[in-house]
Amino acid sequence: MAEFRVASADDWAAIWPIWHAVVAAGDTYTWSPDTTEEQARALWMPPPPAVTVVAERDGAVVATALLKPVQSGPGDHVANAGFMVDPARSGGGIGRALAEFVLDEARRRGYRAMQFSAVVAANVRAVGLWTSLGFDIIGTVPEAFRHPTEGLVGLHVMHRAL
User: Fold this and answer.
1) Phi, psi of 133 (to 5 degrees)
2) pLDDT tens digit string along 67-103?
3) DSSP summary character for residue 1
4) Long-range contacts of 17-23 (CB under 8 A, 24+ apart)
5) What angle do CA 56, 49, 19 make, to 5 degrees?
6) Rounded distance, CA 75 to CA 40, Å?
7) In this structure, is the dihedral angle defined by the CA atoms of residues 22, 87, 101 and 128, taken in order, positive or negative?
8) Do 65 and 34 meet the contact criterion of CB atoms below 8 Å apart?
9) Which of 46, 80, 129, 144 is 20 to 30 A removed from 138 (C-alpha atoms)?
10) Is the model's pTM score more than 0.85?
C-alpha cells in the first residue's frame, strides 16, 4: 500500500503540490485558496510538538498529514490533525491508512483524544471516514463555511478518545 514516515524539510517540494491542489479546490479546508507557498509551509510544517507525516507509494509522496496539539498548555493532551491526499490518488485507501497511522502516532506521543474543529459538513467522504474510525460529531457550526458549489454549509466539530 503505502509507507508512512515523519516528513523532513526536504519533503516540502513534494508536499506543496498536494497542499496547493487540495486547498485551491476550496471545498475542504478553511484556508484561502490563494495561500502562498511560504504561508502554506508555515501552516503545514510548524515546529514541534507538531509533526508532519508523509505517505509514500512507489517512491513518491502521495499524501500528507499534520499532527499537533489542538491547544497549548493545559489542553495540549488533545491532538488535532489535518490530512491531504493527492487528488489523483484519492479513493484508493491511502487516506484511511494514513489516518490509522496518525491515530497510532498520536497515542504513541501521549495524546488522550483527537479533535477536529472544522470538518466541512458537505465533505461526506471525510465525515464518513472519521465516523467509521470512531469519531463523533459533537457539534456543528451552522453556515460557517462558504463551499464553492454547495453555498453556506456547516463545520462539524468531531472528537474521539484515544
Assistant:
1) -95, 15
2) 999 999 999 999 999 999 999 888 889 999 999 999 9
3) -
4) 17/86, 18/61, 18/62, 18/63, 18/64, 18/84, 18/85, 18/86, 18/87, 19/44, 19/64, 19/84, 21/86, 21/87, 22/84, 22/85, 22/87
5) 40
6) 25
7) positive
8) no
9) 46
10) yes
